[in-house]
Amino acid sequence: MSENSSPHDGKYFVIQKGKAKCNQGNQFPQFKVTSHQKHYWNNKEGQADYLAVTEDDLQFTPPGPSFGQCKLKPSSGGYLPCAFAPAGKWQKPYEKTKVMNKSCITELSELMCAIGGKITIKEHGQTAEIAQQNVRNADPKQQQNINPLFDYKEFQDEQEEDVNICE
After folding, report:
1. Buried b / exposed e across 97-114, counting CB within 10 Å, b at 16+?
2. Structural domain that includes position 37
3. Which of 69, 80, 99, 162 holds its CA 20 to 30 A away from the CA of 46?
4. Structurally, how many domains does the chain consist of?
């Protein structure tokens, strides 16, 4: 790893509609951003689901037994509900990117629970979309090697015609 690289390079930032998992639980709650209402990842419209999760965001939706039943709390009738109690802030945040002076979390970040569980990222919440620019810039020969049954050049031409019709 070079001097300027980070283990976070190539990882996604987590957004509010992402999901967390606890190694001792059986449910996967969504994040609840409470540290700001300012920065959205990949969403011009500013929809709350796309709020950036920071190291200070320690709540989940639904509240209460967020992670379901806790394996660290066995009882005669199974396991007792999760009593999530964060032990400090998120660990391994991406220090190079901050929102309101708080580091953002990525797929590598972890949060410890005082009960004994370790919370990690199950889903970052972002989705990839193919834009017209991606279609235009792709190499048809390379695409043909990936999928020989698909005529990518023809697809590019059709997409370009559709764009010209709409303009």
Report:
1. eebeebbbbbbbbebbbe
2. 19-123
3. 162
4. 2
